[in-house]
Amino acid sequence: MTVLNLPIVKRGRGPTSAPWRKLNNTQSFESPLTRSVQTLALPGARWACTLTWANLTAADAALMRAFLYALRGRAGRFYVPHSTVQRPRGTALGTPLVAGAAQAGATLATDGWTAGATLLAGDFIGFGASELRVVTANATADGAGLMSIVLDEPMRASPADNSALVLSAPTCIMRLTSDDIESLFRPSAAGPLTDVTIDCVETWS
User: Fold this and answer.
1) Per-residue b/e over 144-167, b at no fewer than 16 CB within 10 Å?
2) How many Cα neighbours within 13 Å face the side chain of 138?
3) Is the separation of the CB atoms in 47 and 152 below 8 Å?
4) Secondary structure tally for the chain: helices H, strands E
5) How many Å apart are CA 78 and CA 63, to the nearest integer?
6) Could you give the CA distance from residue 73 to residue 71 in angstroms, rounded to a whole number?
7) What are phi and psi of 165, to 5 degrees?
8) What is the pLDDT tens value at each position of the chain, 205 positions in all?
9) How far apart are the first and last CA of the chain?
10) Of the CATH numbers 3.30.200, 3.40.30, 3.30.70, 1.10.3210, which one belongs to the domain with range 4-83+171-202?
11) DSSP state of 169
12) Where in the chain is CATH 2.40.30.290?
């Protein structure tokens, strides 16, 4: 199935609110003798968010309804840009690329930066098949434009050598958490308008 883009409504201003959450995947083991607990971090952490468009006109509500029905419930996939991330807080100058194939783990080697370019802890980047990651340590490009980026978790798959990093409005692929489309629409308190709220969770299969 084709991965869709969110429809352009409210004159392109995007959702009225869009809080994001990170759903980590852990497993705990408690000793029956000492009650000590060991907790393991497992692969499969996912992003989740709730997108709300308030006070949609009839025309915009129709566009949203067409988009949501085209998803066919939880079967469909669509791109969602992180709501609060437009650009990194670091200088992030240059044309950054993945530097080397077969990379794994939580450190990404990159090149193509302007010498001295920076990413700051808490910045977001995108790469590979729509992997959206948080930078967890400040990073600075060396004189050759190389930068090693520490990520919040290991990469799901090795990105292709020389593939581009996404710094502007990075996205991930999500699906709906409900098959009941009409329950997402409700009358607006502002009059003859419509509010739409959708719960989404990241998926990569």
Assistant:
1) ebebebbbbbebbeebeeeeebbb
2) 7
3) no
4) 1, 16
5) 15
6) 5
7) -85, 145
8) 799 999 999 888 889 999 999 999 999 999 999 999 999 988 889 999 999 999 999 999 999 999 999 999 999 999 999 877 778 999 999 999 999 999 999 999 999 999 999 999 999 999 998 899 999 999 999 999 999 999 999 999 999 999 999 999 899 999 999 999 999 999 998 788 999 999 999 998 7
9) 11
10) 3.30.200
11) S
12) 87-168
Structure tokens at 109: 């080697």
Tokens, residue 167? 């710094």
Count Cβ atoms below 10 Å from residue 69 Cβ, excluding itself.
12
Phi, psi of 111, deg, nearest 5? -145, -175
Q: Quick one: 34 exposed, middle or buried, by C-beta within 10 A (0-12, 13-18, 19+)?
A: exposed
CATH number given to 87-168: 2.40.30.290
